[in-house]
Amino acid sequence: MDLATLARPQLNRRDFVKIASLTVAAMGLSQALNPRIVEALEQVSPAKPPVIWLEGQGCTGCTESFLNNLEPSAVSILLDTISLRYHETAMAASGHQADKALHDTIKAGGYVLVIEGSIPLAQNGKFCTIAGKTFVDIVRESAKNAAVIINVGACSSFGGIPRSGPTDAVGYLFRGKTLHHVFDDVGNKPVINLPTCPVHNERLVATIVYYLTFGKAPEMDSYHRPLAFYGKLQHDNCARRGQFEARRFVTDFKDPAQHGRCLILKGCKGPIAFQDCWERQWNQRTNYCIQAGVPCVACSQPEFYQDTSPLYAHDYDFGVK
Ligand code: SF4
Asked: Are the beta carbons of 257 and 277 closer than 8 angstroms?
């Protein structure tokens, strides 16, 4: 989507109230904070905090997910509350003009850095280069002057699917440790991971709005994931948990009599997956994997995908044979 081809939206107070309500609900905050968030949005709207959105080794699914329907739309939020200075997929500029926008923003500092996609390290990072620079160097350079870093999706958080390929791809955390030689200069700035494959647009919007309102990251777990989204286990909150306890499992997807049973024998990784998909759902709260009859692949976890594949095989020891 080319943002320049869209008419510039104008968010009004009603839209800010909607964004505030979304944030309060998504983050599990008190409704009493609604006016404070609205006020913060009204204040930042004219100033428009700059945002750099980098994309490394990924499928652009997180960008697609973010631009998916929200009310007000993600595009409105992008254009009216933040200033998206650099985004390879969505920006109108290209070539030297785009490069200049990136470097001017980095030089000025104080921006929100969003990273999508993993960082390939093999062959000195040459699997992913932009304007002759490796993605490792682009991330290192962009991270230095950022105010906050938000890793969107499994790839930039933990390496995701590319981690299992030949490029030695990594995310911000690799096997539980920060990738220090890439993020060596980030200092004390907050780094927030929003894994799942792709990122959920509500989780990203609420995180950005939270940061704009309170000037800090929300409470996070040891993997830098906001507890509001990743603090509960899929398995403990699953509508099929009763089926699990009764040992009624799907063994044949084609058998209609097994519809609605627990999917653990088909590879469901719900017992290790911390997320709130069971509550938040996807595509404007229409559905999510397990409700659609598909096993959870634990894409919110650092183990995804290398250590959780094959996705649809039951080879984890959950104590169920
Ligand atoms: Fe739900 Fe999966 Fe747990 Fe079964 S194993 S109850 S389908 S999360």
From this structure: no
CA distance 76 to 138: 28
Which of these ranges, 38-42, 231-235, 287-291, 306-310, has the smallest mean pLDDT?
38-42
Of 202, 197, 159, which is closest to residue 178 (Cα–Cα)?
159
Does the CB atom of residue 264 touch ligand 1 within 6 A?
yes
Ligand 1 mean position, distance from CA 159 (Å) = 25
Ligand 1 site, residue 234, Cβ cutoff 6 A: yes
**pTM of this structure:** 0.89
To the query of whether residue 289 is one of the catalytic residues in this protein, the response is yes
pLDDT of residue 27: 78
Q: What is the mean pLDDT of residues 80-108?
A: 86
Taking each helix axis as running N to C, give the angle between helix 201-214 and helix 34-47, from 0 to 180 degrees, rounded to the nearest 10.
90
CB neighbours of 96 closer than 8 A, spacing ≥ 6?
Answer: none
**Which of 87, 200, 224, 296 is the catalytic position?**
296
Section 86-114 average pLDDT: 89
Write down the catalytic residue from 87, 128, 155, 200.
Answer: 155
